[in-house]
Amino acid sequence: MRIHMALDRLIELEGRVARLYTRFYRRFSDVPAVAGIWWEMALDEHEHVGVLTMVKELADRKGQVPDIQGRLRPLQATIQACERTAAQTVTLSQALAMAVRLERSELDQLGRETVRAIGGDLPPIPRSAFAPHEAHLERLMRTVRKFGGEEVVREAWDLRPEARSTAGQSVRVARAAAARERKRKGSTRPKRG
Q1: Strand partners, 64
Q2: 3-class DSSP state of 64
Q3: 79-117, pLDDT tens digit by residue?
Q4: Is 5 exposed, middle or buried (CB count within 10 Å of its CB: 0-12, 13-18, 19+)?
Q5: Which portions of the chain are predicted below pLDDT 70?
Q6: At how many degrees (to 10) do helices 3-27 and 107-118 cross?
Q7: Full residue range of the structural domain in which residue 25 is found
Q8: 23-40 pLDDT per residue, tens
Q9: Is residue 114 part of a domain?
Q10: Rounded to an integer, what distance in angstroms lies between the CA atom of residue 189 and that of residue 81?
Q11: Is residue 60 part of a domain?
Q12: CB 35 within 8 A of CB 96
């Protein structure tokens, strides 16, 4: 895949996420406890757009990177679904659920991998440019716990730094604990699907 094509797609997706978070900032600006998180998240996404734009300006137009089209499709679908939902009146819990879904996606990882694959004469890109910002994620987690509701909190568990390092094991442990609790209470969980 041509470098510029990959970067154009990533810039577009990061920009769409930034606009979505800006929309949430505007929507919830009357709630100071959450307006700040939307502002910070929009700024982070705009930073990603800026880094990718700078890399594009410096990269060889004819250069190639591994094809990321297949990995972009699910991201495009997720972002589009969030945009459709956000076009209507959304609750804070719904907006937080969308943010969790977007932050759990591999958009930042694709940006980091693509920039790394370009390499060449580019100056080093700070690791922090596409790394999950611990303070940012922790603030999102606090906001989700306070305003998001139980289901959103369950979805957000892997945004915590300690959960990301042991994600697979944590899922199994959490599911087993929930099953034991349901059994103890004598209830069963309806099967999905």
Answers
A1: 2
A2: strand
A3: 999 999 999 999 998 898 898 889 888 898 899 889 888
A4: middle
A5: 121, 126-128, 130-136, 149-193
A6: 150
A7: 3-131
A8: 999 999 998 888 988 998
A9: yes
A10: 27
A11: yes
A12: no
192 located within any domain? no
Q: At what angle do helices 3-27 and 92-104 cross, to 10 degrees?
A: 160
Let me know the angle formed at the C-alpha of 80 by 87 and 36, rounded to the nearest 5 degrees: 60
Distance, CA of 166 to CA of 110 (rounded, Å): 21
Q: Find, among 161, 184, 186, 24, the residue nearest to 97 by Cα.
A: 24
Q: Is residue 191 part of a domain?
A: no
Q: How many CB atoms lie within 10 A of CB 123?
A: 8
Q: Looking at beta carbons, which pairs linking 118-125 to residues 24 or more positions away fall under 8 Å? A: 118/3, 118/55, 118/59, 118/63, 118/65, 120/59, 120/60, 120/63, 121/58, 122/55, 122/58, 122/59, 125/51, 125/55
Provide CB contacts within 8 A for 170, sequence distance 6+. 157, 158, 163
Of 155, 147, 109, 148, give the one whose Cα is nearest residue 129.
109
Contact 37, 96 (CB under 8 A): no
The number of domains in the chain is 1
